[in-house]
Fold this protein.
Amino acid sequence: MSELRKDPITNRWVIISQERSARPSELRTGESRHLENSFCPFCEGHEDKTTPEILALRAGGGNPNSPGWQVRVIPNKFPVLESAHDLKRYGIGLYDAMSGTGAHEVVIEHPQHVLNMADFEPDRIQEILKVIKGRLIDLYKDNRFRFVMVFKNYGVSAGASIAHAHSQIIALPIVPWNIKVELEAARTHFLRKERCLFCDVIKQEFMTRERMVAENSDYVSFTPFASRFPFEVTIAPKKHACRFSDMSDESFGHLAFILKDVLTRLKVTLNDPAYNIILHTAPNIVGRPGMADYWTSIELDYHWHLQIMPRLTKVAGFEWGTGFYINPTPPEEASEFLRDYENYIVL
């Protein structure tokens, strides 16, 4: 069983997962950017080679764990956290720890061995987004889970261990440090100005437009002013919304178009780089002992968004030692480069 341990100096939680050490990995030492799997358990027809599915979209019905699906969700065979265990918090001398309670799921995004989401039709991306929404709603019914992280690793340098297009969902018993930083900044901004920090950032980007990549009726994509990585892109809804799971199916259609657009621009202009996609959404707002007012303004102050981070540079000693990131490509140049993939368009 895994365990969460808290560093008392940095206040960061770490997952100690001995089970993951036994995970067979396709990663190899070398510089290849993408994986070549001789056998893929995620392909249609190999359902018996994975854990039993949690759910699957099947156009014409059909039996569980059989071919004929469009999108499939399964438990991770080597989970970081497991839901079968009770959540226990305890101390080990000075240190704080808790049981490795949570959930770890895999969203298999296509029945065929397609690798890059950039190659999907928008309708397929929309179906994936709807499935993820359903999983978030379901997982947040469990009050043990404080935050559900949705992320996608594409390519070896982005951490992918299976080439077949998939995303992962991990439900956590705590709010992770990176998300907590955002939540605290958003709350502080709202208490001072009674406005959403993210809405203000989006308005600023519309005023200058020098970091804009693309937009449509519901969403905007731009390179952040203080981008940590070259060609980092944020996608956010234009209208304020704190939860991804509150979005309508129609809105997901527009999100699918802009997500495909951005990924296509990255693929074409940067020669199909590895990348990570991370969903930032509001945490579970169940009350917490001693923190009655912690979530009182989250509906107004937080704004969900997607981060897309191409893996074009490596984080080295200076970054690890200082927390600073060195980005050799100004976001203004990156956005212009991405826009030039095609004349700037409103989708």
In short: The mean pLDDT is 90. The CA atoms of residues 3 and 100 lie 4 Å apart.
